[in-house]
Design brief:
about 475 residues, mainly alpha, 20 helices, about 5% strand, ND/Mrp_TM
Length: about 475
């Protein structure tokens, strides 16, 4: 297993570079690598044993494989496969496929890391590959958005690196398990870096602009898997050190409501999806043990909805109310929205039920309210008008959407016990309340939140405020 794991991680980088040399084989090499990752992810997911691979014992450089890793690796494989399938019909160059596979491989590396130094290297590679993909159109706007992302990402990683050095000073090791014995400054700095990288709570204010202004397939990758590379190490630390779990849960609940509020006052479809991503990352953090299945459901839905958003007649929901879309575009949109709302038959229902089951009574009550907020957001897409006239779904997107919708249905196999009568009645009741609130309060709403905090010059100030909050939390 050790040799297989190391070969699998290095192979993705090798394949990414080989695409430069053999551009005519770009799609075949990319799909072959993703297929291999999918197979590896399924094997890790089905294997019930916890596997620890020590690479450099003195520095604590370690890989950890368990079901949580398996879920995230499988999510990465399915989302990347859908994005590559979409790109076949978009005439992307070999450079795009090369960067997509390098990004895919470095994301997988994060999902098996158990030490802060290996994680740092993987996150830096992700930052560079994501920067190149966001700037791929080479327009002034895309280059500005990419540079903004790179600056925020590198600043966050600078805080993280200082924290990682403090962990090594305290433990003579970079292993995650040393975090609890490290000075409070180390915990606060590492948390700040990962929260910013993952787009959690106020640290995620960079996310709506970056995800909404990127090209459609890049938005799907960013929202489907890239942001999860900041959240996964926090989940791993929460599972290894139970003392950190209450902090993660509080941040998760705050993030879930923050994203909902941000999305409710938006009219731009891509910005709504991006703000919803912030909210859903909060769901991952409240229950680290159940986060794998939720990540899978969220990744599939967000890649589906972002890929569909690229074909809508307009990004503005007010304009979409005036110009009905073709029914063939609306159907995948409503199915993805139902899954994200937690409607039975879809993986979103099973994932929410598993998450709520893992919580204490008061945390469950709070997240039940958050689930109403999620359904309220996606009511904006479900109740859009449609007709059987105009430009319908393109053939390439049709196949990709079908693939993702099938995956959303099949994902239920991971938690069949969710299908009890009380769970289904609770889910349907929450959605009914949300839809009623949509027509009474949200649909007539004209107010939009100011975007002043999203401005580039304010993002670093927000990071400083979060650092103070983390110091206060850790010292308390």
């Amino acid at each position: 297993m050790t040799v297989l794991t190391i070969a699998w991680i290095t192979l993705s980088l090798f394949v990414g570079l080989t695409i430069y040399l053999l551009p005519k084989l770009d799609r075949y090499l990319a799909f072959g690598m993703v297929l291999l990752s999918g197979g590896y992810g399924v094997q890790v997911l089905l294997d019930q044993t916890l596997r620890e691979i020590v690479l450099l014992d003195h520095f604590g450089v370690t890989l950890l494989l368990d079901q949580l890793s398996g879920y995230f690796i499988l999510t990465n494989a399915l989302v990347t496969a859908a994005v590559l399938g979409y790109c076949i019909f978009q005439q992307k160059s070999a450079f795009f496929y090369s960067q997509a596979i390098i990004l895919h491989g470095s994301i997988n590396a994060v999902f098996i890391c158990a030490d802060f130094m290996s994680l740092y290297v993987a996150l830096e590679v992700i930052g560079i590959a994501a920067f190149l993909l966001v700037s791929y159109p080479k327009t002034n706007r895309s280059i500005w958005v990419a540079l903004r992302y790179l600056f925020i990402s590198n600043t966050a990683m600078l805080f993280y690196l200082v924290g990682a050095v403090l962990v090594y000073q305290a433990n003579n090791s970079f292993a995650f398990t040393g975090l609890i014995n490290s000075p409070p400054e180390a915990i606060a700095l590492i948390f700040l870096g990962l929260l910013t990288k993952g787009g959690i709570f106020l640290s995620g204010l960079w996310l709506p602009l970056t995800h909404s202004e990127s090209e459609t397939p890049v938005s799907a990758m960013l929202s489907g898997v890239v942001v999860k590379t900041g959240v996964f190490p926090l989940l791993r630390c929460g599972l290894l050190m139970e003392e950190l779990t209450p902090t993660l849960q509080l941040l998760g609940m705050a993030t879930a409501f923050f994203g909902v509020i941000y999305a409710l006052f938006e009219k731009d479809s891509k910005r709504i999806l991006a703000s919803s991503t912030i909210s859903q990352l909060g769901w991952l953090m409240v229950a680290p043990a159940a986060a794998g299945m939720y990540a899978l459901g969220h990744g599939l839905v967000k890649s589906l909805l972002f890929l569909m958003s690229g074909s809508l007649p307009s990004r503005n929901l007010d304009e979409l109310q005036e110009k009905p879309m073709h029914t063939s575009l609306w159907i995948p949109l409503i199915l993805g929205s139902l899954s994200m709302s937690g409607f039975p038959l879809w993986i979103g229902f099973s994932a929410k039920a598993l998450t709520l089951k893992s919580l204490g009574s008061w945390q469950e009550m709070v997240m039940n309210v958050a689930s109403v907020g999620t359904a309220l957001i996606f009511a904006k897409f479900i109740f859009l008008p449609h007709k059987r006239q105009g430009e319908g779904i393109k053939p390439g997107l049709k196949w990709v959407a079908s693939f993702l919708i099938c995956a959303l249905l099949l994902g239920n196999i991971f938690y069949w016990p969710a299908y009890t009568l009380p769970n289904m009645l609770k889910a349907v009741g929450a959605i009914a309340v949300a839809w009623l609130a949509y027509f009474v309060m949200v649909k007539p709403l004209k107010f939009q939140l100011p975007r002043v905090l999203e401005k580039f010059e304010h993002l670093i100030g927000v990071m400083s405020a979060i650092l103070v909050l983390l110091f206060w939390t850790v010292f308390a």
